[in-house]
Design a protein that fits this description.
Shape of chain A: globular
Order of helices and strands of chain A: EHEHEEE
Oligomer: heterodimer
Number of helices of chain A: 2
Strand content of chain A: 25-35%
Distance between the termini of chain B: 60 Å
Largest interface: A-B, 18 and 43 residues
Helix content of chain A: 10-25%
Chain lengths: 85, 754
C-alpha cells in the first residue's frame, strides 16, 4: 500500500468537511491514507485543497496547527471560521 | 452551591471602577502613528482615480496606503469575503474605506486624509431592498443582489388557514439600529520583540480576527497575534473586523506601532448594524384558540456586504413561529444587498426582528379570540418532543412554558387580570390624558452557532504552586461578566474560594481557542470545557500522587482544592511543582442531527417572557415605560449579578428598539451619526421598576445546568412594549420605532375615524 507520494501507507485518518470546503473537496466525509509521520498539512494536500490560512483543522476535536503530527485513526475536521452570532 | 448563583464581586470590578483597566481605546505606545481612514464620499460610485500626492507631502505624514499596498487578499468578511479592505474600483456604502493615512499626530493624519482627492463616477444608490430583488436592478455583487435566501415549508399552510377561525395578516418594518457600545472601535498594533505583528484591539473572536488579518497580509497565522481580552461593549457589533486589518497594514508597512480610535460618527457610518427588515406575517388560529398556520415573507436588508447576513436571516426564519406549536408553516426569506450601510451580528441575531412580528400577531389573535394574551401563548407553547416552526424536533427541555407560568403569577399580570378591560381602573390615580397598558411577549433564542459550523471551546486550567488557579479561555470580556462566571464554575467544581481563581482571556498567543464571544454561548460552552479540564487536572494530579506517594490513580478525587484518597489528602499546590500543572479540554456544543442551512437549526435554546407596563400621554404622544418584568430561562444562574445586569441592560436596549432608535438613511447617506440625533434611551427612560426573575429550567448538558441569557434578556422586551401600547390606546404600530409623533398621528386618525 502506498500513499499519494511514494511512501508506505501507515496512517489512515477520517476527514469531515464543512461549508464551502465540502463543495471544494467534493466530499462531506472521506478516509485519507497518509505516510508515516504525516502532519495536518499533508492531510490538506492529500484531499487536494489549496492550503489557506482560513482552513481550520480540528484533530480529534481540538484545534490543531499545520505541523501537528497525526496518528492512525485520527479524526480530522476541516472548516472555515464562518460562525458568529 | 457555594459560589455558583451568588452575587460575587466581578473579577474586573475594581480595575474598572477605579479606571485602572486599559481598554483598547486607552492603549498608547511610544513612537506610534495615528491612523485615519478615508471613506467613501458616495454610497454607490465607481472610483476613477485616487490622488494621494498632497497628503504624502504633508508634514508629519509617514505613510499613505491604498489597495495596491495590500500584500494578501483585499477582502474580508466572516462568512463571505465580499468586502474590500481598501476599495480600488467601486464603493458600495458610505463607510467603505479607500485610503489609510499614518501620521505622527491625529491632527496631521486627519489633515492629510482631507487632502486626498478621489474622483468618482457617481452611481444611483440602491436603497429599496424590494427593488434590489428585481432582476432589473443593478447588481451590487457578481452573483446579484440576493445575498442569501431560505425557503421552508412544514405541513400545508393553505389547509391550516382553511381551518382557522381567525386569520391575521400584517407587515412589520423594523429599523437599522446601532449597537451604541460605549467604546468605539479601537486598537493598537506593533511588532513584538519576537517579530510577531501584534494587534491589541476590540473584537469578539481573536482567532478568527487573526485569520482575517493573516489572509489580508498574506502572512502565516503564527506571524500574527491578536489580543482582545477587554472590550468596551460589543453586542455583536465587534464580531466582524473593524480596525484590525487597517492597523496591521500600517504597522506592516511602517514597522511602527499604530493606533486607531473611531469617532462616534465613523463608528455609526462604517461598521455593522442590526438588519432592517420587512416582515409580512399571516397567522391563523382555530376558534378553540389553537394556532393553525403561519406564512411569512421576510426581506432583510444586509446593506453593502454580507458579514453575517446569511445566518441572521436563517435565525429570523428559524424563530418566525416563536416558541409556539404551529402545525403548518411556510417561510420565504431573503437577505438583499443594497447601498444602505452594512449590517451584521447584533444581540438577538435575527430573533429580535422575528419576535416583533410573531409576538404582535399573537396578541392580535388573542384579542380576536378574546383570550388572555399569556393564556393564549401558553395554550400554544412548544414542549419537548414537539416539532418547532420549521419542522425539527425540540429534543431538549423547553423552558418557554415555565417562563409564561412565572409571568402569569407576576404583579403586572395579576394587575392586568384584576382590572380586565375596565380602563378606568388602569388610570384611577393618574391624569385623564395618561393611558396605561400592559403587554406581554415570549421568545426562544438559539444558543450557539447551530449545526453546520463546528462549535467548540477549548480551555486550559493551571494549578499554580501558590494555590491559585488560572482559567485560560479564548473568549472576550465584552462587559457581560463571563470571566466571573468562569471563575465561579471553576471554584465551585474544585471546591476552592472564588478569590483563588483568575482568568486569562482572548489572546491568540496565551489562550486556547474557545470559540466566539457571541450567540449566548460562552457560559455554556466555556463552562463545560472548564469542568472537563478540571477532570483532566484531577487525573494529572492523581498521576503525580501515584508517582510521589504511591496513591492509586483511580481512587483519587479532587475535593475542596485537595487531592483525596481514603483518609489521606494533599493540597493541589503541594503536588504541582514550581511550574504549576496545566490541563486542557475541549467541549463541543451539541447540535441537531440534520442541517437546514448555515447554523440552522439549533438544538439548544434559552427562553423568556417579558411583561411591560407603559403610560401613553395622549396629549404629547410620549410613551413612558413604567415597569418591566423579565422571566428568563437561561438554565441555572451562575453569576446572579451578571444575570440581572444582562436583563436590565437588555430591557434598556429593548426600550430603545421600541421607542427611540433608528439609523436614518437618505439615499444611502447617514443622517444621524452621533447620539445627539441618534436617540438612545437615557436613565430617565428606563423604569426603576425592573424585576428579573430567573426561571431556572436546568439544562442537563449545561455546566451545572446553565445555558445562556445575554440575548434572551433583550429580544422580547420590544414586542412586550408594542403590545402594551396597543393595550393602552387601542392602536397598534407595525413600524419601529414608535415615536411620539407616530402616537399622536395615530390617535388623531383614530379620533377622526370615530
Amino acid at each position: 500500500l502506498y500513499a499519494h507520494g511514494c511512501g508506505l501507507i501507515v496512517l489512515r485518518v477520517k476527514v469531515t468537511l464543512f461549508g464551502a470546503l465540502r463543495k471544494q473537496a467534493g466530499h462531506a466525509e472521506l478516509d485519507v491514507e497518509l505516510e508515516d509521520e504525516a502532519c495536518v498539512v499533508d492531510a490538506i494536500a492529500a484531499i487536494g485543497l489549496e492550503d489557506r490560512v482560513d482552513i481550520w483543522v480540528l484533530v480529534n476535536g481540538t484545534r490543531a496547527g499545520r505541523d501537528t503530527r497525526l496518528s492512525n485513526g485520527a479524526e480530522l475536521t476541516f472548516f472555515q471560521p464562518v460562525g458568529g452570532g | 452551591m457555594k459560589v455558583v448563583g451568588k452575587r460575587v464581586k466581578r473579577l474586573d470590578a475594581e480595575e474598572k471602577v477605579t479606571g485602572k483597566m486599559l481598554y483598547p481605546s486607552d492603549r498608547t505606545m511610544d513612537g506610534m502613528l495615528w491612523v485615519e481612514v478615508v471613506r467613501a464620499a458616495h454610497p454607490h460610485a465607481r472610483i476613477l482615480s485616487i490622488d494621494t500626492s498632497r497628503a504624502v507631502a504633508q508634514p508629519g505624514v509617514v505613510e499613505v496606503l491604498t489597495a495596491e499596498d495590500i500584500p494578501g487578499e483585499n477582502a474580508f468578511g466572516i462568512q463571505i469575503q465580499d468586502m474590500p479592505v481598501l476599495c480600488s474600483d467601486r464603493v458600495r456604502y458610505m463607510g467603505d474605506a479607500l485610503v489609510l493615512v499614518g501620521a505622527e499626530t491625529r491632527r496631521a493624519a486627519r489633515q492629510a486624509a482631507s487632502d486626498i482627492v478621489v474622483e468618482y463616477e457617481v452611481l444611483e444608490p440602491i436603497c429599496d431592498p424590494e427593488e434590489a430583488l428585481k432582476d432589473s436592478s443593478v447588481a451590487l455583487h457578481k452573483n446579484g443582489n440576493i445575498m442569501h435566501q431560505g425557503h421552508f415549508l412544514k405541513g400545508d399552510p393553505a389547509e391550516g388557514f382553511s381551518k382557522s377561525a381567525v386569520v391575521i395578516e400584517n407587515t412589520y418594518q423594523v429599523p437599522m439600529i446601532d449597537h451604541a457600545f460605549l467604546e468605539t472601535e479601537a486598537g493598537i498594533s506593533y511588532y513584538a520583540e519576537d517579530g510577531v505583528l501584534t494587534i491589541e484591539s476590540c473584537g469578539q473572536y481573536v482567532f478568527r480576527d487573526q485569520t482575517q488579518v493573516a489572509r489580508a497580509l498574506g502572512l502565516p497565522l503564527d506571524k500574527i497575534r491578536v489580543s482582545a481580552p477587554i472590550v468596551g461593549g460589543a453586542f455583536g457589533g465587534k464580531d466582524e473586523i473593524t480596525v484590525q486589518i487597517h492597523l496591521a497594514l500600517m504597522t506592516y508597512h511602517t514597522k511602527r506601532p499604530a493606533r486607531m480610535v473611531a469617532t462616534r460618527e465613523e463608528s455609526i457610518v462604517a461598521h455593522t448594524k442590526r438588519h432592517p427588515a420587512k416582515l409580512w406575517f399571516k397567522t391563523g388560529a382555530s376558534k378553540g384558540g389553537k394556532l393553525m398556520a403561519l406564512e411569512a415573507r421576510i426581506v432583510s436588508d444586509t446593506g453593502a456586504y454580507a458579514s453575517l447576513g446569511g445566518p441572521v436571516l436563517n435565525l429570523m426564519a428559524e424563530h418566525a413561529a416563536g416558541p409556539y406549536l404551529v402545525p403548518h408553516v411556510k417561510v420565504d426569506a431573503y437577505a438583499v444587498y443594497t447601498n444602505n450601510g452594512f449590517s451584521g451580528a447584533f444581540r438577538g441575531f435575527g430573533c429580535t426582528q422575528a419576535c416583533v412580528a410573531i409576538e404582535s400577531q399573537m396578541d392580535l389573535l388573542a384579542k380576536e379570540l378574546k383570550r388572555d394574551p399569556l393564556a393564549f401563548r401558553q395554550a400554544n407553547i412548544l414542549r419537548q418532543g414537539d416539532l418547532a416552526g420549521l419542522g425539527y424536533e425540540m429534543k431538549l427541555k423547553v423552558g418557554a412554558e415555565a417562563t409564561i407560568k412565572a409571568a402569569r403569577k407576576g404583579k403586572l399580570s395579576r394587575k392586568k387580570r384584576s382590572i380586565k378591560n375596565d380602563r378606568s381602573k388602569y388610570s384611577a390615580s393618574i391624569k385623564p390624558y395618561i393611558k396605561r397598558g400592559i403587554g406581554v411577549a415570549s421568545q426562544m433564542q438559539g444558543l450557539g452557532l447551530g449545526i453546520g459550523i463546528p462549535d467548540y471551546a477549548e480551555v486550559e486550567i493551571v494549578a499554580k504552586p501558590d494555590g491559585q488557579l488560572v482559567v485560560k479561555a479564548g473568549t472576550n470580556e465584552i462587559g457581560q461578566g463571563a470571566y466571573t462566571s468562569y471563575a465561579q464554575i471553576a471554584a465551585e467544581v474544585i471546591g476552592i474560594d472564588y478569590e483563588r481563581v483568575s482568568v486569562v482571556g482572548a489572546d491568540t498567543s496565551l489562550t486556547p481557542d474557545s470559540g466566539t464571544t457571541t450567540a449566548s454561548r460562552t457560559t455554556y460552552a466555556v463552562g463545560n470545557a472548564i469542568i472537563m479540564a478540571i477532570a483532566e487536572l484531577e487525573k494529572k494530579l492523581a498521576e503525580l500522587a501515584q508517582q510521589s506517594k504511591g496513591w492509586p490513580v483511580e481512587a483519587c478525587r479532587l475535593e475542596a482544592g485537595m487531592l483525596v484518597t481514603g483518609k489521606s489528602k494533599i493540597k493541589m499546590e503541594d503536588l504541582v511543582g514550581p511550574q504549576g500543572l496545566a490541563a486542557r479540554a475541549t467541549f463541543h456544543v451539541p447540535v441537531q442531527d440534520y442541517e437546514m442551512g448555515d447554523g440552522l437549526p439549533h438544538l439548544l435554546y434559552s427562553y423568556g417572557t417579558h411583561v411591560a407596563l407603559v403610560e401613553v400621554n395622549s396629549l404629547t404622544g410620549e410613551v413612558s415605560v413604567e415597569a418591566v418584568e423579565a422571566y428568563l430561562d437561561g438554565g441555572r444562574v451562575i453569576f446572579r449579578t451578571g444575570f440581572e445586569g444582562q436583563s436590565e441592560g437588555g430591557i434598556a436596549q429593548g426600550i430603545g428598539y421600541a421607542l427611540f432608535e433608528e439609523v436614518l438613511l437618505n439615499k444611502g447617506r447617514f443622517e444621524n451619526t452621533n447620539f445627539n440625533t441618534y436617540i438612545l434611551p437615557s436613565s430617565l427612560d428606563v423604569p426603576l421598576a425592573l424585576k428579573t426573575v430567573p426561571v431556572q429550567v436546568k439544562e442537563a448538558s449545561g455546566p451545572l445546568g446553565a445555558k445562556g441569557i445575554s440575548e434572551t434578556a433583550m429580544v422580547s422586551v420590544t414586542p412586550a412594549i408594542l403590545n402594551a401600547i396597543a393595550d393602552a390606546i387601542g392602536v397598534r404600530f407595525y413600524r419601529l420605532p414608535v415615536r411620539a409623533e407616530d402616537v399622536l398621528n395615530a390617535l388623531e386618525d383614530k379620533q377622526n375615524e370615530s
